[in-house]
Amino acid sequence: MALSNAPFLKMNGLGNQIIVADMRGRKDRVTPEAAIAINARVETRFDQIMAIHDARMPGTANYVEIINSDGSRAQACGNGMRCVVQFLSAEQGRQRFTFETVAGILFGEEAETGLVTVDMGTPKFAWYDIPLAEEFADTRTIELQIGPIDAPVLHSPSVMSIGNPHATFWVKDDVWSYALDRFGPLLENHPIFPERANIGIAQVVEPDKIILRVWERGAGLTEACGTAACAALVNGARTRRTARKATVTLPGGDLVVEWQADDRVTLTGPAEFEWRGEFDPASGAWTRSKAA
Ligand SMILES: N[C@@H](CCC[C@H](N)C(=O)O)C(=O)O
After folding, report:
1. With contact defined as beta carbons under 8 Å apart, do 46 and 19 qualify?
2. In this structure, which of 12, 136, 158, 229 has its CB flanked by the most CB atoms within 10 Å?
3. Residue range 162-186, pLDDT digits in tens
């Protein structure tokens, strides 16, 4: 028997294109084929689908699954979590939520200002946790063998996991002068990253100001990436380039990231509703709702 369509909201978190799929009360999942089909249409091009399922663990509001636009599954998505918090907050009239994700238990809260803060958990630095394909005693700076690319600074990133794998490459000049569209795929798929990696190019302007561009694993160049902003701040602080709290400016705008004394990392920024529709989680066939 065919299942009914599931409702979705098209949202964005600082220009990170997000589809919030309401899978509550259902047993099925969004398939990779559906994600690829949805992304193939210009109107629904997206970076991540955040699929909200019924809670599986006591004490959590929901289980949230994350699907990249290439159909792969991700463990964490900061901008998407803010969209989920804003959707549930508007629906339920309460501001604080606890979620289960593959990356662990995360917390989110919408403030009176409309900005949303998510607690993204604790960073991991061990090579096997990121993961890397070979042992590195110190992941604050690793040397990559990349072959003859014309940007030597793109050989020595700081690497870590904030649920998902990140490499932050530090540059002293303008982040826009680097052909991230060309280097991104090469670095994302470098053999040192057995599960691929999100690639950030970061410039520290002041200890509390970072400019960042990101090539996302499974999604390519995006306007903003919340977990990459967390990685830039944490990697910046552990290499003594930045303070433990900073504004991270991405093409889509600003995020505030703090690496707290208890080791947890928080991310604050906007989330915006665009339009709603319904879709078939198996095939990706969708229609836009007439209601706003
Ligand atoms: N847009 C995200 C990150 C989404 C997941 C990432 N592409 C991955 O595969 O790890 C964010 O805001 O954090």
Report:
1. yes
2. 229
3. 999 999 999 999 999 999 999 999 9
- State yes or no: is 77 an active-site residue: yes
* Domains held by the chain: number: 2
Same domain flag for 277 and 258? no
Residues 275 and 254 reside in one and the same domain: no
Same-domain status, 188 and 255: yes
Annotated binding site for substrate: 16, 48, 68, 78-79, 164, 198, 216-217, 226-227
Going by CA atoms, what residue is nearest to atom 1 of ligand 1?
225
Whether 115 and 187 map to the same domain: the answer is no
User: Which atom of ligand 1 is nearest the CA belonging to 216?
Assistant: 7
In this structure, the answer to whether residues 16 and 42 fall within a common structural domain is: yes
| 213 in any annotated domain | yes
* pTM of structure: 0.97
**CATH number for the domain that contains residue 76:** 3.10.310.10
pLDDT, tens digit, 9 for 90 and up, residues 252-281: 999 999 999 999 999 999 999 999 999 999
What lines the ligand 1 site, CB under 6 Å?
Answer: 16, 47-48, 68, 74, 77-80, 164, 198, 216-219, 225-227
**Active-site option among 132, 225, 230, 265:** 225
**Can you tell me which atom of ligand 1 is nearest the CA of 76?**
5
pLDDT tens per residue, range 118-134: 999 999 999 999 999 99
**Residue 33 in tokens:** 């084929």
> Is 225 a catalytic site residue?
yes
Vertex 14 angle, CA 102 and 285, to 5°: 65
Model ipTM?
0.99
* CA-18 nearest atom, ligand 1: 1
How far apart are the CA of 197 and the centre of ligand 1, in A? Answer: 10
220 and 280: one domain?
A: no
Residue count of the chain: 292
DSSP characters for 199-259?
A: EEEEEEEETTEEEEEEEETTTEEES--HHHHHHHHHHHHHTTSS-SEEEEEETTEEEEEEE
Range of the domain at 176: 152-263
